[in-house]
């Protein structure tokens, strides 16, 4: 059962940012029955996202996990636009999914606050930035919340729900309803740098890079040891390539600045990012994906 509604019914949902996370969020929102608008600054990014969502749904049908009826209904409920103001003006709930740069997020939230109707809830898909600071850039801090999704969104079950200082109970309840409609499980965590999962993941991934730098083992054997010895579904270096080493580095830099030396980024990771070896999205990270 969904949490009892003490807020305006949510029918329209906007996702800002059509990258890996944004398109995944848009897909599960459409599958959950919401009328979804996916927003980005470039039409070609939106077209690519739309095609990937279609492929994901088709694969779900082929695997017997998505019915043809749900596939068709989800595509029908999904729209794309480069007009963020227009999309915001029709939204009951907005989820921002842009890079982990707080100045960028605050700029977007200020814009959403201007254009969204007064009842609209604004969520940020941050892995550890301050909800309170982002909320303070708006005139509705009680309606601002963190919803930390995981990649790939259509397969991963968890969303971390994060309160800011002024986030209301109604906003939390509405966010849990949205998550439930997306067929996700939630955990509520207090605002703190890195939340729960990002702190652990960042530390494991960083330590794996230190071992690679020190020659403890090859990348393949580090990942194999963690998968077979600790029963992780992916090795930490594989996961870093999937998430994006630039994103992993930004999280580590934030944790290092706020929580201290144990999160100091490995110099080898910094070198990879400077070289543009960011992982799967660039064709090369710790591993080479150029032939795949």
TrEMBL record:
Residues annotated as site: Important for catalytic activity: 148
Positions contributing to NAD(+) binding: 17-22, 40, 100, 105, 127, 151, 281
Gene3D superfamilies membership: N-(1-d-carboxylethyl)-l-norvaline Dehydrogenase, domain 2, NAD(P)-binding Rossmann-like Domain
Location of the 3-hydroxyacyl-CoA dehydrogenase C-terminal domain: 194-289
Pfam families per UniProt: 3HCDH, 3HCDH_N
Pathway(s) where this gene product acts: Lipid metabolism; butanoate metabolism
Domain 3-hydroxyacyl-CoA dehydrogenase NAD binding: residue ranges: 13-191
Molecular functions per Gene Ontology: NAD+ binding; oxidoreductase activity, acting on the CH-OH group of donors, NAD or NADP as acceptor
PANTHER family per record: 3-HYDROXYACYL-COA DEHYDROGENASE FAMILY PROTEIN, 3-HYDROXYBUTYRYL-COA DEHYDROGENASE
Similarity annotation: Belongs to the 3-hydroxyacyl-CoA dehydrogenase family.
Protein name: 3-hydroxybutyryl-CoA dehydrogenase
Protein's organism: Desulfoscipio gibsoniae DSM 7213
């Amino acid at each position: 059962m969904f949490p009892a509604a003490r807020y305006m019914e949510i029918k329209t949902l906007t996702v800002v940012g059509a990258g890996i996370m944004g398109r995944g969020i848009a897909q599960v929102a459409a599958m959950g029955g919401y009328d979804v608008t996916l927003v980005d600054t470039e039409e070609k990014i939106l077209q690519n996202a739309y095609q990937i969502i279609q492929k994901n749904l088709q694969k779900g049908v082929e695997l017997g996990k998505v019915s043809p009826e749900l596939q068709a209904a989800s595509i029908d409920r999904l729209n794309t636009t480069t007009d963020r103001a227009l999309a915001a003006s029709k939204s009951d709930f907005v989820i921002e999914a842009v890079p982990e740069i707080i100045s960028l997020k605050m700029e977007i939230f200020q814009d959403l606050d201007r254009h969204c109707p007064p009842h609209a809830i604004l969520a940020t898909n941050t892995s550890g930035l301050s909800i309170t600071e982002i909320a303070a850039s708006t005139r509705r801090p009680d309606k601002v919340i963190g919803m930390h999704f995981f990649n790939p969104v259509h397969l991963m079950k968890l969303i971390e729900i994060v309160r800011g200082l002024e986030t209301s109970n109604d906003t939390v309840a509405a966010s849990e309803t949205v998550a439930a409609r997306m067929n996700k499980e939630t955990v509520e965590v207090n605002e703190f740098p890195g939340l729960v999962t990002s702190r652990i993941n960042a530390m494991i991934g960083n330590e794996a890079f230190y071992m690679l730098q020190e020659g403890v083992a090859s990348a393949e054997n580090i990942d194999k040891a963690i998968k077979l010895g600790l029963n992780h579904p992916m090795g930490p270096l594989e996961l870093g390539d999937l998430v994006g080493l630039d994103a992993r580095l930004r999280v580590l830099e934030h944790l290092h600045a706020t929580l201290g030396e144990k999160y100091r980024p490995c110099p080898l990771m910094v070198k990879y990012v400077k070289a543009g070896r960011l992982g799967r999205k660039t064709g090369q990270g710790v591993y080479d994906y150029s032939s795949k």
